[in-house]
Write a structure and sequence with these properties.
Distance between the termini: 40 Å
Number of strands: 11
Number of helices: 7
Structural class: alpha+beta
Strand order of the largest sheet: 5-4-3-6-7
Oligomer: single chain
Helix content: 25-40%
Shape: elongated
Order of helices and strands: EEHEHHEHEHEEHEEHEE
């Protein structure tokens, strides 16, 4: 069954490069990113895992843990991690799932329908503290993922989960946000005391409320 936004992310236990892990226990009460890779020793994914390792503090600021997945085994993962650390000048600091039986890949619908049946597509799932799926993005093999964009999206998701706002195009942390249409204009001052602008009756903005 295809997973959709708002669905509960399926829990699983898996052997990883950091031992056996229960996904829900690993996430605790925080947020999570689960992202898949076609195979170990692939060039684009080598740069991606190195980038994620370097962003550990940024994910930690957002109470977000990362877990990667590949259909290769633990011994292969160990060798690949050594290559990542060497070539990307970092230390891989998150678990990589060894999904040799493709159980988790199938659970999250990560097997590429138009490619090798053994390859997972390069998918990203952002999972909220309520264990529900907040974002799904799938990339082609030729295009590296933009992890700055994933950090931006997590900022938006965490903000909009707590306030009646949405974030406009290209929004970044610290910029003005859009007030939800359900909020009546006359009620805005009580809910958003930092002020607001009425551009159109349906388009009202206010400074980011949690700053």
């Amino acid at each position: 069954m295809t997973l959709r936004l708002g669905d509960v992310a399926p829990n699983f236990t898996a052997e990883t490069s950091e031992g056996k892990i229960d996904f829900y226990e690993y996430l605790g009460d925080g947020w999570g990113i689960l992202f898949s890779h076609p195979a170990d020793y692939t060039p684009v994914c080598t740069t991606e895992l190195g980038t994620v390792a370097k962003l550990k503090n940024e994910f930690a600021k957002r109470n977000t843990k990362v877990m990667a997945l590949s259909v290769d085994g633990l011994e292969s993962h160990k060798g690949w991690i050594s290559d990542i650390n060497e070539t990307q000048q970092t230390e891989v600091n998150f678990p990589i799932i060894a999904d040799e039986d493709r159980k988790i890949a199938n659970l999250y619908d990560m097997i590429h329908p138009n490619s090798n049946e053994n390859f997972t597509v390069r998918s990203v799932f952002v999972i909220g503290s309520d264990k529900k799926i907040k974002l799904i993005i799938t990339y082609p093999a030729s295009t590296g993922r933009n992890f700055d964009e994933l950090l931006r999206v997590i900022d938006s998701l965490q903000l909009t989960a707590n306030y009646s706002v949405a974030t406009p195009a290209n929004w970044k942390h610290g910029e003005d946000v859009v007030i939800a249409p359900a909020i009546k204009t006359e009620d805005i001052p009580g809910k958003f005391p930092k002020g607001h602008k009425v551009i159109k009756p349906y388009l009202r903005t206010t400074p980011q409320p949690d700053l």
